[in-house]
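Retro notes (design track)

What went well: tokenization of the new backbones is finally stable.
What didn't: we kept losing track of which sequence belonged to which structure.
Fix going forward: every design gets posted as structure first, then sequence, in one message. First example under the new rule, 795 residues:
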């Protein structure tokens, strides 16, 4: 084709077409709207049912002891190094306030390990000041506070309530204030008279006792203490909690406990510190003894003295056993070879006796003796025969009999020897396996002893460290007495710090846009099917002839009255073909071949409708079915099956005898494929095919040929020389883009003359990003679909 600019751009623009990208995503605008609505709705639900988090804060002034009496009090102990590297007093006090003991004392004092809450339809609400009851637990065992335990209290009357398990199993009905004996504690339920948000006469409250250590750890993780600035001793304490008043009360209690501890007698602190260290020393001493006993027990149970020497002994023994095992294997092979030799030898052959392996016990000497006796008889017999004795000589006969008996005895002896050697081999293998097992255990035993040794060293170092710190901590804590002045008592902020509604809604809106964008992007990324003209132009340099929208019916045949989008598209293709064929002489038919890469791409549909559309212009058109392996035209048009192959095979037949004129089209004639031959390719090489085309080109204005797919068979290439133009069908949403390389190679190698691509079975839209497609729906009534149908229709 000389003028390719009529069908495609001269070159591909490598720059990003922003408008094209926008159109690609904008056609899915209902997805974006639904996604935004859903995500924002989920954000509202999240804000509605997420438990909010409030923040309470307090401010205290910490006395800087470096400016007070601490320096003078410790000056006498300067030689002990107590004044070196001391942290700022503010930092020390922050660590004390955040200590687990302070927080735990506050939690215990406020009973914050006991939770009261009511269960709504979705959200669980914790009760604090508005709880209708108070529950106390006492005389509990050691395991009571180590795991979570919950009970449900349902009010019955003014003075009674029902106690249930969380599974709904009733325990009993009790009076308020009575002592309830449970399996591991006692419980008392007191009714509160103030309850602003709950009906004090009708309520159901779940009481949960949580592990106090977990509760303390939770509050510690949410407690923040920091100085307001580097040069100030003013410290701000903040605490986050779902119940604002609880955070406020806990902060005030922590400050009160801290101040109470600060003003305690320094000797009291020293004694308690010393007691703590003594207890730790006692505990570490016990642990150290346990570790030493563990090492001793391990050595005893594994019968170990010195792992290194034991390993050397095991290895040496294993080497000896392996040598003996190899020696035994060799002996078995030698004896077996002698037995084979004996079985294959005659009475005249001498058996070598020096090959019999010897052992320390001399158990193999019997076989050697028998062989020597045998050899002696053979030598004696041979000497008599060589000296002139005949085989019938009585002495020779007697020797032959004795030789036969000795051969049997030697065989039995060798078989017994092989059996005994195999038994010895099994014993050696078992002993070697036992030693190998012991050797393989040595690394594990070494590692386990190292673990025990490390534990022992750790305990020893910790023990010595505590001994040292018992004196140091006693002195340093005895003279330390920090104090704090409360500047602002704890107060909570009315607005929750989490969740932030504006941020959550923004995230929901952003996700609503991002999710469909990613889905569309991934669908487009992993979809390798040809979609539109752009996919063809991005993967080939073949001219683009046009596209045909999806037909309303599978067997549509375009008539003069057809106004469907596919009919209009075929007419446009017909017009474009006129430009492709303008160089063909007027005195012969313009031959158009229709092919495709794969079957089921619609080449037969295009060929039939292209022929019918050209026939409607008054030109005489012949439609030939040249796909003789899979003929479809005869069934599509309901014409006789006899056709091209029958003409080629039978001599004396005229091609006109197999051409059928269609009644519905005045100028359209059909030459079906005929019966399916066993040798299609050979048949197409017949000279009658060339004669047929030369004859038909003189009789018709246009010849449209439906050929076989080019990727499967060579039929189309065999007759391609008769074509004036090749319409290469590519079915949208069916052919893989990678298969366009086949068509591109045919174009570049010029195997298919005057070739152009026709995109078939496209989805009609207002625009494809190129501005074409408008005419396909002009003058027709497009079926109206609901927005749901447009949203979920096949893309």
């Amino acid at each position: 084709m000389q003028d390719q600019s009529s069908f495609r751009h001269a070159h591909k623009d490598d720059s990003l077409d922003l408008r094209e990208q926008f159109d690609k995503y904008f056609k899915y605008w209902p997805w974006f709207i639904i996604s935004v609505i859903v995500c924002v709705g989920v954000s509202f639900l999240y804000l509605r049912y997420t438990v909010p988090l409030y923040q309470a804060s307090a401010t205290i002034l910490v006395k800087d002891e470096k400016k007070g009496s601490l320096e003078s009090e410790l000056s006498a102990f300067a030689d002990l190094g107590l004044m070196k590297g001391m942290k700022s007093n503010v930092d020390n006090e922050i660590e004390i306030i955040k200590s687990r003991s302070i927080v735990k004392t506050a939690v215990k004092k406020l009973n914050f390990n006991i939770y009261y809450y009511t269960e709504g339809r979705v959200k669980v609400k914790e009760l604090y000041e508005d709880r209708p009851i108070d529950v106390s637990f006492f005389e509990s065992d050691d395991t009571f506070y180590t795991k979570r335990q919950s009970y449900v209290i349902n009010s019955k009357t003014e003075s009674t309530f029902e106690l249930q398990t969380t599974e709904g199993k009733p325990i009993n009905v009790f009076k308020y204030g009575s002592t309830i004996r449970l399996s591991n504690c006692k419980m008392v339920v007191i009714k509160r008279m103030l309850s602003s948000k709950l009906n004090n006469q009708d309520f159901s409250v779940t009481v949960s006792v949580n592990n106090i250590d977990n509760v303390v750890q939770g509050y510690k993780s949410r407690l923040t203490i920091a100085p307001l600035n580097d040069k100030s001793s003013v410290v701000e304490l903040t605490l986050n909690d779902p119940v604002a008043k609880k955070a406020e009360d806990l902060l005030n209690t922590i400050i009160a406990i801290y101040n109470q501890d600060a003003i305690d007698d320094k000797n009291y602190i020293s004694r308690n510190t010393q007691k703590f260290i003594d207890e730790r020393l006692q505990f570490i001493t016990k642990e150290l003894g346990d570790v030493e006993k563990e090492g001793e027990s391990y050595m005893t149970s594994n019968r170990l003295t010195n792992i290194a020497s034991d390993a050397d002994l095991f290895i040496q023994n294993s080497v000896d056993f392996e040598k003996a095992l190899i020696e035994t294997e060799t002996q078995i092979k030698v004896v077996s070879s002698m037995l084979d030799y004996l079985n294959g030898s005659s009475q005249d052959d001498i058996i070598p006796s020096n090959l019999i392996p010897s052992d320390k016990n001399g158990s193999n000497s019997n076989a050697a003796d028998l062989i020597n006796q045998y050899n002696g008889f053979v030598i004696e017999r041979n000497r008599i025969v060589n000296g002139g004795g005949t085989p019938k000589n009585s002495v020779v006969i007697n020797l032959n009999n004795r030789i036969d008996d000795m051969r049997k005895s030697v065989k039995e002896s060798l078989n017994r020897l092989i059996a005994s050697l195999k038994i010895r081999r099994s014993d050696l293998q078992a002993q070697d396996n036992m030693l190998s097992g012991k050797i393989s255990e040595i690394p594990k035993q070494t590692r386990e002893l190292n673990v025990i040794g490390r534990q022992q060293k750790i305990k020893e170092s910790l023990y010595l460290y505590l001994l040292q710190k018992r004196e140091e901590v006693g002195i340093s804590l005895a003279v330390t007495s920090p104090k704090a002045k409360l500047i602002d008592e704890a107060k909570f902020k009315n607005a929750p710090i989490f969740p932030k509604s504006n941020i959550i809604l923004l995230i929901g809106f952003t996700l609503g846009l991002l999710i469909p964008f990613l889905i569309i992007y991934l669908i487009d990324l992993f979809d390798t099917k040809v979609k539109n003209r752009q996919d063809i132009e991005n993967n080939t340099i073949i001219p683009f002839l046009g596209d045909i929208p999806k037909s309303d019916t599978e067997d549509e045949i375009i008539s003069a009255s057809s106004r469907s989008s596919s009919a209009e598209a075929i007419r446009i293709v017909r017009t474009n073909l006129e430009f492709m064929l303008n160089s063909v002489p007027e005195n012969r038919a313009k031959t158009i071949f229709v092919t495709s890469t794969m079957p089921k791409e619609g080449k037969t549909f295009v060929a039939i409708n292209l022929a019918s559309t050209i026939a409607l212009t008054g030109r005489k058109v012949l439609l030939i079915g040249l796909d003789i392996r899979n003929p479809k035209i005869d069934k599509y048009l309901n014409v006789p099956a006899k056709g091209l192959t029958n003409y080629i095979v039978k001599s004396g037949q005229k091609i006109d005898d197999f051409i059928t004129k269609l009644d519905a089209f005045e100028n359209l004639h059909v030459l079906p494929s005929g019966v399916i031959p066993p040798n299609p390719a050979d048949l197409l090489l017949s000279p009658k095919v060339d004669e047929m085309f030369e004859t038909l080109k003189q009789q018709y204005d246009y010849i449209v040929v439906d050929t076989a797919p080019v990727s499967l068979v060579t039929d189309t290439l065999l007759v391609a020389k008769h074509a004036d133009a090749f319409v290469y069908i590519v079915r949208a949403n069916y052919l893989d883009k990678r298969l366009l390389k086949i068509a591109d190679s045919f174009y570049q190698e010029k195997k298919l003359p005057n070739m152009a691509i026709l995109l078939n079975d496209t989805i009609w839209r207002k625009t494809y990003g190129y501005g074409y497609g408008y005419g396909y729906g002009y003058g027709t009534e497009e079926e109206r679909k609901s927005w749901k149908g447009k949203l979920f229709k096949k893309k």
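Added context from the reviewer: The chain has four domains: 4-50+499-526, 114-210, 307-478, 533-792.
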